Amino acid sequence: MADLLTHVLFAYILLTASGWISSWIDRRWVVIGMCGSIIPDLVKVGWLLDADTVSALLHAPFSWGAFGTLTGVTLVSGAVAVFFKPGFRTKAYSMLFLGGSSALVLDGLRAYADYYSNFWLYPFLIRPPTPNLYVSSDIRVSVFAVLLAVFVFTVDRIRQPTTETPLTKPEG
Amino acid sequence: MIRKLLVSTVLVSIVLISGVHYDAAIGRHSPYPSDEQLATEYGEHIGEQTLVFGDVNSIDRANETMSITVDSDEGPVTLRVTGETPPVRPGGVIQVFGTLHENHEIKASNTVVVERETTSRASKILLSVAGALLALIAFFGHWRINWETVSFVRR
Fold first, then answer.
1. Can you list the residues of chain B whose pLDDT is less than 70?
2. pLDDT at residue number B126
3. Which of B26, B131, B27 has its CA nearest to residue A69?
C-alpha cells in the first residue's frame, strides 16, 4: 500500500477540496477523515504482532489483511464513531468511512505484475484491475502528495483564513 | 460508557474474526497456486501461471536471471526467474508474474519492483510514522477526549 503519510494527505486533499463545494465538511471534520485514512494501515499491526502468532492462538489461519479492505473500513469506522456524541456519530462515521475509502482507492491504483489489485473490496471476493500507477515504496508519490497538500492548504487558508462553520448541533 | 466500549469491541472483534475468513477465502479465490503450494507441491503446478512476491537474492544481468526467495508458512521457496532483470538490487523486493517451469524456474512475463533495495523499507516505515503523527496532531487540534464520558468533544 501507499505509505501512511500519502494516505493521510490524500484524504486531506480530497475532503478539504470537497469542503470548498459543501459547507457540510469543514476543517473539524476533515481531520476525522484524515484519521479514517489510517484504518487500512492497521494491517501494519502485523509488524508488531505476526499473523502466524495469532494463527497459533486461534488454531486457524489468520491474516491482518481484512483491516485493509472495505470490511475493515466499514466496521472500524463504526468502532471509532461510537465515541462521538450521539448527534455527531453519523457525520463522524461518514468522515471516517470516506477517509478510509480514499486510502483503499489509492491502494487500488498500485502496481501488480498481473495488472489486478488485491482483494480490497472484501467481502466481495474480486481483484479489480489496476492501472499500475505506482509502487508502495515510490517516494515520488509521497512528494507529489506533500506538494499538492501544501497547495490545497494554501488555497484553503486564502479562502477561509481562520473561521470555521459553527456546529449545527449542540454539543452534549 | 460501557455500552460504547462494548459496541466498539464487538465491531473490532468482527474484523479480527473476518481475518480468519479472509485468509481462507482469498486462497480459494486466487487463480494462482499459493506460496505454500509452491513450497510443498511445486511439481503439480508446472505450466501454470503464478504471481509471487519475493526477496531478491542475486541477479545475473548477463544471463537475464535472478534468484528470489518467496516466504511461505511451509518454509522459504527459492526460485530462479528468467526472462526479465528489472532494476533491483539484492535485498530488494520484487513481484514476478510468469509461468512455472521445472527446477523451480519462473519464466517472467512481467515484473514489478516493490522495493529497489533494503533501505526502501526503512523510508516507508518513517513516512508511515510521520503520517500517523500528522493525523493525530491534526485531530487533537480540533477535538479532545472527555474522560468522564469517554467521548471525543470539540475543543
1. 119-121
2. 85
3. B26
Instruction: Give the model's confidence band at A172: pLDDT under 50 very low, under 70 low, under 90 confident, else very high.
Output: very low
Alpha-carbon gap, residue A64 to A71, rounded angstroms = 12
**Is B122's Cβ below 8 Å from some Cβ in A?**
no
The alpha-carbon gap from B138 to the nearest alpha carbon of chain A, in Å, equals 6
β-partners of residue B90 are none
> Which of B97, B95, B82 shows the shortest CA–CA distance to B48?
B97
Residue of chain B with shortest Cα separation from A83: B151
Report, as an integer, the average pLDDT of A120-137: 93
Nearest to B133 by CA among A79, A8, A84, A45: A8
pTM of the full predicted structure?
Answer: 0.89
Q: Which of B139, B13, B109 is nearest to A66 (CA)?
A: B13
Best CA proximity match to A122, nearest among A63, A65, A75, A70 = A70
A144 to chain B nearest CA, in Å? 14
Per the structure block, which three cell numbers stand in for A22? 459543501
| Per-window interface: B 5-34 vs A, CB < 8 A | 7-9, 11-12, 14-16, 18-27, 29
| DSSP 8-state class, residue A132 | -
When pLDDT is averaged across residues A148-169 and rounded to a whole number, the result is: 79
pLDDT of amino acid A28: 95
Q: Which residue of A has its CA nearest to B17?
A: A62
For residue A155, what are the CA distances in angstroms to A23, A60, B75? 16, 51, 53
The pLDDT value recorded for residue A170 is: 45
Q: Which residues contact B41 (CB under 8 A, 6 or more apart)?
A: B33
Calculate how close chain B gets to A32, using CA atoms only, in Å. 6
**Chain A residue nearest residue B50, CA to CA:** A114
Interface mutation target, options B4, B6, B11, chain A, most CBs of A under 10 Å: B11
Beta bridge partners of B82: B65, B107
- Which residue type is seen at B139? F
